[in-house]
Structures are given as structure tokens and as C-alpha cells.
Amino acid sequence: MYLARNTDGRRIPATRDESGYCPSCNEPLTPKLGDIYEWHWSHKPGQACSYRKTATFWQYGWIRHYHASGEWEMETSVSGVDFDGIHPEKRLSLMLAHKLDLIALKAFIDASAQRGLKPVVIFNAKAFERFQFDDYRLKHPKRSDNGWIFFFSHAFPGHKRTASLWIDIEQGKHPHFGLKSGIYNLTYSAECHGAITVGRTPKLKSAPLCSKPKSGGIGL
Length: 220
Prior knowledge:
Blueprint: E1 4-5, E2 11-12, E3 29-32, E4 40-43, H1 57-69, E5 73-78, E6 81-87, E7 92-97, H2 102-114, E8 118-124, E9 132-134, E10 137-139, H3 148-154, E11 164-169, E12 182-188, E13 196-198
């Protein structure tokens, strides 16, 4: 996990200066403060708690980014459901998706709607590594793939969008599809059946959070 709970109940990033405890099991945690990967907290060997055990370093990077803004509550829960992040003022919920897991995505969208939150999903580019990219469109080579249905349902231009969907591109890391670094808005392609349209203008991490994308929809 990226954020532990300290003795005062505050959520804190990994540090040598304070003790950290798991928000779920309350056991003491070990800070991982390496020179290569994002700093984070880890359970001690033998502890059975699975809280955020599958989090990736890519997710830690985004959690650090949003946590530093002071506007988001990261690694939090609402009414018993865990979210990667919540923006209380804007009523946004955040999912950092490292793969195109339609079941998990549907659960996130449904849980957000039930709690009056507008869902935002940022995909790791690897979620689309099997897709073909042409003219700012992503399309799976197999006709049997139905991943596009999620985008058709929630991000169809001209219809009410029920989620704000983005892909995180890092130039030099596979796959980058020949695009510059940044996050690109994703919508369903009305011109090409089964394809996902990638916005042509990226938003940078340093850009103001919660601003409205030029292509419309829910702000990031």
C-alpha cells in the first residue's frame, strides 16, 4: 500500500520518521524506501492481511501524484467499498486499472453510481498492448473480443457519459503507440465499430486536476 495509518490516525506515505499501521488489520508495517521503485508500505513476513496487496508501482505513482495535490483522499473507502481515490468536493471516484478487467470495471462503475460518485478510470497502457493502433483508434484484432462494449456503454460521444476514461502513455515504455507522454481521453468510436478513440491532445500530470477535458465528459 502507498498510505499507512500513523498513531494519530492520519494516512502517511512511507517514511523512516513515523510508524505506520495497516488501515485494515492495524498491524505494524515496514516502509520500503528503495532508490528505484516508488516508496510504499509492506506487511511484515507472515502477516496474512491482503489489503492492497496487488497494488503496482504504476498505481503508487498515481496515488502519490493525487495525494500530493491535497484535494483527493487516496486508498480510501466509502460505505464499505474500497476506492483508489475519492475527490470529496467534485464527487469523483478513481480507479487505476492496470488491465482491462470488465468485471472489476463494472463493479467500480456500479459502486460509484450507488454512492453518488462520478467514476474516473485511468488505464495503464499495458491494458491495451494486444490492441492495434491506427489513426488514433485502438481495436482488438480478434472479433470475439468484447472489451469495446465497456466504452460503448460509458463513453459514447453524443450520449450521456457515465465515466471518464483515460489511458496513461509513457514515451519509451511499451506500449506507447507512437504517442507522446501524457494521459489521453478514451471514447467509443462512432465511426469504426468495435474501436476505441484516443484523444489527440494529452493531459499532463502537472495539469490542474479535475479540469474538464476538451472532448467533454467528466473532468479528471
